[in-house]
Amino acid sequence: MGGHNEVARLASLKNLRLLDTLPSESFDRITRLVAHFFDLPIAAVSLTDIDRQWFKSSVGVEHNQIPREKAPCAQVAESCKPLVIHDFQEDEFYRDSTLGNAGIRFYAGTPLITPDGHGLGALCVLGTEPRSITESELKTLTDLAAMVMDQIELQHAVGRIEASSGLPNRFQLINDLSDLHLQSDGTPRLMGLLDLAHTAQFDRLSRALTPGHLDGIIQSVVRILNEHVGAATTPYHIGPTQFAFFAPNEGAVEEYSAEISRILREIERSREFPMTITPSVGILNFNPAEMEPEDVFRSLQSAVQDARDSHTGIALFSTLTDQRHRRNFTLLQDFPRALEADDQLYLVFQPRMDVTSGEVRAAEALLRWKHPTLGNISPAEFIPLVEASTFARELTDWVIDQSLKVMGQWRRQGHALQLSINLSAANLEEPDFLERFLAALDRHHAKPGDIELELTESAMMKEADRALDLLERLSEAGAKLAIDDFGTGYSSLSYMQKLPADVVKIDRSFIADLVNGNRERVLVRSMIDLSHSLGYRVVAEGVETLEMSDMLEAMGCDEIQGFWLSRPLSGDMLIDWIRFKASSLRQMRA
C-alpha cells in the first residue's frame, strides 16, 4: 500500500480509538463464534498498527499482539482482500514468520473495512494443522467481519463518543468496566478522574465564552491527556469537565500520582485557558474482578470530591470518606419518607429565660430524626444536607406546621409561648415563602407574632437584596425575626442597620470563652452593647453554668438559653419544666 494511503489508513484507525482499549465482550462473542464455526483453536480481531498486530479480541492466545512484519493480517489490511494460507510450511513468505515459527499451519482472514475504504485489520481464524476452506466458509467469515465492523461503528456512534472531544464517553466507560469486571484475572488497576473546574467556575466559563472557545479548552485537555496517557490507554470524556483514564501500566500509586501532578501542572500553566480553573484528580486503586462498574464510577466521583479539598488537587479514594458520602446519600434518599412517616421526625424545645425576671416566654424548636435503621441522626449531620437539597422547602414547611400544632396544644393548656424556628438560606430564595407561612398560621389559628424566624448572618448575606426584601415583608406581616449565630458570619454594620430584626442571638462559641479572660468578656460585652444600640434584644446561646448566667446578666444581656437552664425537651415536658423548674431557678438566682 502506498505511503499516502497508509498514513490515511493509520489515521482512520487512530480516530476510532480501538488500539490498547480494554477487552470487550461484544467482540469476544464474535471471535468465539468464529472459532466454534471453524472448529479451530484460535480466532482474533486483529488491528494493523504501525509496527504490530494488536488483538482487540482473541480466543486461544495469551498475548495481545505480534509484530506486523510478515503478519498475514497486515496483508489483509493493506490489500482489503481475504487471505487464506492452507499450510504455512509450504508458503515461502510466511514459513519463517512469527506465526509460522509458533507452529501455526493454517490461516484465513477477511478484512475489516471502514465506510471510506480503509482496512483496519482482519477477522482471522488459525489452526495448528493444514486445512482447506470452502467458498461458503469464507463467505461466513466475511459476514462475521462485517459484524465486527458494525460493532466498531456502533461504539464510535454518537451514543458512545463525546462530540466535543472525540473521546469515548461515560456509556463506553461503563461498558468497558463491565468487560474488565468479567474478564479480569484479579490484577489491581489504577484509574484517575480529572475534573477541570468546580461547578461555579464552569458556570462562569459557560457564561463568558462561546461554545467554540469551550470546545477549544476541551481539545487542549485532550491533547495533554493523550501526551501523558493516550499512548498506552484511551481517556474517556465522561462529563462536561470530567475525564477518566486508566494508568498506562500497573505501577505504584506514588508513580501514578507523580504523573498526574505533571498533568495538572501542564493544564494549570497552559495559556489556552482564558480563565482560572482549579483542576483536581481523584485516584482509585481497585480489583476489577471484585468491583462492579457502577461502584468504580461512584468511587472515582467520591475521590475527586476529596481532591477538590486537597491542597495538591489529588486524592486517593478513601473508604472512610466514601462511607460518609454513601451515608449522606442514604439520608437524603430516605428524608422524603421521613417527612411522610409519623414516627421519625419530631421536635424538641429549648427554653429561653429572661435574665432579669426569670420568666420563660420563648423557646426554640429543634428538629430531631430517629431513622428506622440508622437510629438517631445528629441534626448537625442531616440538616445541612437537607438544606442544600431540593428538600429544604419541605423541611421548613414541616417544622413550621408541627411547631404551630404544638403551640395550639400549649394555648389550650393556658401557656402562651413564642416559638423560634430556624430558616435556611434556601427559604429566602423561595418567592412564595411568605404566602406559605401566612397560610400555615391561618390553618392553626395563630398570629405572626407567635413565631420568631431565625436566620444566620451567612444566610442573610447570601442573597442580601432578596433576603432584605423578604425579611421586610415578613416583619410588616407581624412576624418576629432573629439573627442567629451572631458574630460567626460576615454582616456589615450598614447591612445590620437595615435588617428589620428584633433579636440577636450571640453564638455559643463566644459564650463559652467568657470564662477564659478579660479580652473574651470585653468582646461579648461589646456585642451586647452594639446590638442594643441598634435596637435588638440580645439572647445568649450555650449558657452552661450559673457563672456564665451571672456574667451575662451583669453585661445587660436580655435572655439566656442553654444546658444550664435545660436540655431540649418534648412539648409536654417543656410545660412541666415551666411549671416546676422555672420557679426553683428564680429562687436560686434570688
From TrEMBL:
Annotated coiled-coil segments of the chain: none
Tree of life domain: Bacteria
Domain annotation EAL: ranges: 328-582
Name this polypeptide is given: EAL domain-containing protein (Putative c-di-GMP-specific phosphodiesterase class I)/GGDEF domain-containing protein
Annotated Pfam families: EAL (PF00563), GAF (PF01590)
InterPro entries referenced in this protein's UniProt entry, alphabetically: Cyclic-di-GMP_PDE-like, EAL_dom, EAL_sf, GAF, GAF-like_dom_sf, Nucleotide_cyclase, Rev_trsase/Diguanyl_cyclase
Bilayer-crossing regions: none
Organism listed in the record: Rhizobium paknamense
